[in-house]
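Ticket #4471: structure export looks truncated?
Reporter: QA, pipeline team
Priority: medium

Steps to reproduce: submit the single chain below to the structure queue and open the exported record.
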Amino acid sequence: MSSYDFDPERTASQIAKMNELGDRWRRLALLRRLTNRRARAVQEPGELPRVPLRLVRPLQPQDPDGVVLDPLLVVPDQIVVRVDARQAAEDALRGAGWLADEPEQAAEEGAARGQAELDAPQRPDRAVTLHLRRSVSVTKAIRLLRRRGVEGVSATHIVALGGRAKGGSTPKRTDVVLPPRPDDPIADSPKVIVIDTGVDAAAIGLQAFDNRDDGWLDHVVADAVGDHIDPLDTTDYFGSVGPDDYLDLAAGHGTFVAGAIRQQSPTANITMIRVLDTDGLGSERVIEDAIDRAAVLFGDEPGLLNLSLGLETIDGLAPVGIRDAIDALPDNVLVIAAAGNGPTGIKVWPAALSAANENVLAVASVTRSPAGTLTPSTWSNFGPWVSFSAFGEGVLSTFVEGTETRGSGREDDPFDPDPDTFLPPNPYATWSGTSFATAKITGELARVLTANPGLGVRGAVDDLRQRGTVLTNYGTALEV
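Actual output as written to the record:
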């Protein structure tokens, strides 16, 4: 079903805000605001670390198409190196006096990985994190290693929901609700795993009061290894430690994604793995470990891995650990990833892996023109690497109880100056972004595979392509 026109006025305000982020100054202002909001050593409930952030300039000022590249968020003082390049990288950095002392490196490694070490299956590391002395910039270290011919080296990039910062579109309360979910048993196959902010405890019946009772999130599972419940409120307006009784910036994102998947496939078998904090930010190393955890959960059964998230990189290349973790997934697993809310043709990862890996599907957003045809959303990323598009504007889905933090209205403030309150037991919201177009494609694939268990994941992809309309640089657009 399509919900893009349920609340035209609020949807229009979301789209206007996202289009404003086409202005480079606004994007950079939001990124600086997020960077300043971070407390360096905050540990969220469930031991998920709120990693420190730093804005760094890309290694090149422009991409191959001449698009000016903005500074990006990375974890300061550390780089990611492929295992086979570790010795050469350590020798070069130590020779320059830039490598952190071993005791300091070991301590910071544990703090930065946090929950990821608990969740990762037993497997050899494909890449390792090397820690730099605090006076050494990430880009300076990478340039040195590139000059020395060391390959497989990158910054530790940060996922930031909502394009370059989680400030493009905020969820809006709506009086539109869905009828109760059909009382059908949850399908055994395919397994759908969502790597995101986690899921709300009340939404899946783990909270004593105000449990959701409309059925749309019944039997959604928070992965048993670690704590994958979204805590919703861990910091105040300024980013200080401790809740303030208002929803944090990305609270409820995973709950919304799960509901969007279920609307397309009401019996979808969904498991949630939490990798992003309540501001929607997370390190690529934690995401890498979550992908490895997902591989264990999928086993030999057909699987769909929903990644309603993405990141750009300072060199335009795929993040080392995430790429290798996805390449290691079995052939029975599809990865469905958001193309991003740029709106540019700059590659967003892991979605852009679709160009080299047929089991990765990149999803952009479309809307409906006044003439009734499907047309690209003005704020959506695009490119020949995009596989599918779906309605990503004003999507209606399940949300969480609470009141949003009131923003100041300043252009660098990602919080809404007109915040909404979402009431129990069955809060709903409308939201815009390629995150939610991605969830719809995942849901459609789940529905097709549930109805046709012998089709296989590639057969399900072919089924969707036969039903859609090809749009240049937006893949196959579907009426979902």
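Status: closed, not a bug. The export was complete when the record was re-opened. Leaving a note from the reviewer for reference: Residues 434-451 form the longest helix (18 residues).
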